[in-house]
Queue: 3 jobs
Job 1
Amino acid sequence: MLYTEPLSLRELDRLMRSVPNFAPRGHGIILIRKQEYTAKDCDCRYCPHYSARRKTGCTLDRCDCVTERIIAGAATYRETIAETMSAIHYPPLVRRINQLLKESEETPMNYRNGKHRIVFAKAITRLNRKNKALMAALHLLTADHRLWQVAKSFTSQNEINMNAVQVRDCDENAYTLLCAAKDLYLGTKHLTVSDLADAELIPPKVFALICNAMAIRRFGLGAVQYEEIGEK
């Protein structure tokens, strides 16, 4: 040992005797990667709370893994919308949400129609699909043909110049979709909770689209079980 005393020189001694160009022990880099689940990973049959004897398959009142299942695109439409709206306690809106869930039991509406799904898939090509606010806004803007013809000119490089989007010769539904898109993308407050609860102001199909967009804003594209066109 070259240095033994004083104690302040012992660190220097260890440095001099270490292997050149190697980082000293205790100074490594720790990489932490968040687990990204797939729909296959979220198969309820693998869950300890699953029971084949139950109609729903689950013995719990609320799935412990519902968030992970929604993100992975493995949750049902009912679970997705219910979880998205779980913090809402305004009675008229709660009743409307329950009505939506009842009507969607047979035919869940993730998109306005098949054309909407195709236009949306094309619109998000080469965009950051992990940008939930962007995906939510585009889900609404692509639901109306005329609205999207205007909005797509202001959409580029993972951004929407929402303030530049001005609707002309569009119906009330298109204007409502634009207002909802602005609220989800910019954090504005064009639509209130009472507006959403008003079936005369916001028709059922438009309301369902807004609920879907809210789910995307919270959980990502898994909320509408998005997949590439042609992918099976």
Note: The chain has two domains: 44-103, 114-224.
Job 2
Amino acid sequence: MGLPPLEQLRESMRVVSVPLRVRFRGITTREVALLEGPAGWGEWGPFLEYDPAESSRWLASAIESSYATWPATCRTTVPVNATVPAVPAAEVAGVLARFDGCTTAKVKVAERGQSLRDDVGRVAEVRRLMGPGARLRVDANGAWSVDEAADAVRALAAYDLEYAEQPCATVDELRRLRIRLARNGVDVLVAADESVRKADDPVRVAREEAADIVVVKVAPLGGVTRALDVVAACGLPAVVSSALDTSVGMAAGVALAAALPSLPYACGLGTVALLAEDVRVPPLLPDRGVLRPGRVIPDPARLAALAAPPERAAWWRERLAAAYEVLRGGL
């Protein structure tokens, strides 16, 4: 697929500023751009600190969504996990209440300024509320050293973890941690997220046996088709996750999960529940623990109500030009 003209993208782009229910990833407002093309709508939402090179992969994904056809689906429903931010244990019940029918939860841990005691308290509360039959996983976003991760995973393993997502930052650290956990008899799988979506070589984590599971996100990998190729090349079980998307971006994640030949784990595609508002009414939220694949069309009234200030829209137009140049240079 060739690149559409830059001016065409600029003309269709709508920038929205969406408030969050709770602080997540250090932010309380999610700012994204939406693009409309002949195939529908795509979401371009690289986080504000990302440079043009990293942002260009997200742009490729948005262009695929709005100008191309997604791959054929292998299933009609996608199981979804609840996502629990690094909130105090007392707030866990309120978070879980927003994830209808989900029997798996991903719990954020290793938040800056918090301790392992905070993490244990949060995970213990999730387990208490969801019961022994629920599946629990934790996500450290690469914040621990190997020593810290070994201690933390050992402590959290008491709550029957499905896996630990990106406990350490580098591929080498993940590999060393897997070896240490095995030697210590700690039966917790290691999943790689940032080591896949932020890597120049996303298959390295599988080649070096540094993970048991890969977590893939559509936008950072450049689109649904590209993400499918990465999963196939890794040859590991995959979990599809979101990047704090609106319903438009979430639809692309659901399309990827629905197209995977095998999907043994619930996917992190319920985070629209963390948004206080959305670009669609009703928002794309789990129904009895699942989502169904399909295109999402934003509501014009919601686009108007959530429109970012003119100076922010201008900033995104400049950002679009910079990311577009990176994409054009790579063709």
Note: The chain has a mean pLDDT of 96.
Job 3
Amino acid sequence: MDWKPDWGLRGRMVLTMFLLFALYLVFVGALWWTDSFFYLPLMGAFVLAQFFFSDKLALYSMGAKKVSEEEYPELHATVSRLSQQADLPKPAVAVADSRVPNAFAAGRSQKKSTVCVTTGLLRTLDRDELEGVIAHELAHVKNRDVMVMTIASFLSTVAFMIVRMGFWFGGGRDRQGGGGGFLVAIVASLVVWIVSFVLIRALSRYREFAADRGGALITGKPSALASALLKIDGRMDKVPKEDLREQSEMNAFFIVPLKSDVIGKLFSTHPATEKRVDRLRDLERELETR
């Protein structure tokens, strides 16, 4: 496997992380100045719990279960072979009984990871396309994307919680006096949450590009992954709307997000499928000329 980095993509990810870091430094300073620093340990415990149980929460949300080699021998064999090619420990394998054709990876580390596919995906894709999707998810594991996104979104989650608590309890604090500092903390938290929301969405989209590239290099077949993305995206219109609504909360995990409106696409966690396919076709041509 020729796992060469895309330096342009990495540069954009580093820039986004730097902007998040600078924003969060300002936010921590605002919390300290307004004596609201005590929120951090509480919210930190919440985010850590979410981090350590992210795989179980994701599987539960999808109604998925881990499956044995006896139940899905070909799927296990594919995951095992691609994991070896990616130089990764074999993750747990799970299947969700869903008509939505999709897949996701979860877990806090390379040794504690799970790759999940839906029954709709298994029925939709051919062998090469399925390998491309699984390789994409393994690239997420190799790039430690769950850990990166959890760290990146930590203070954003804190900011969101402070804003919500401000609406719940802010009025009472103002009536008791001394609520001015708390109001400043709420305003600062709102600004931080909005800006970080945009930056984290950008970071997530860059990481999807990186996982596409990594998955294509694992299999050596960028065109197969491109075909899978187009096929999954095209099948979304044929899935019953109630199924899409039930699984919309998993959009950030899916290889292809569920359909959304114009605003939803603007702040999507994923790039447009067409852009992903174009990059994969460029990579295909690059590999052919080597």
Note: The longest helix spans residues 180-219.
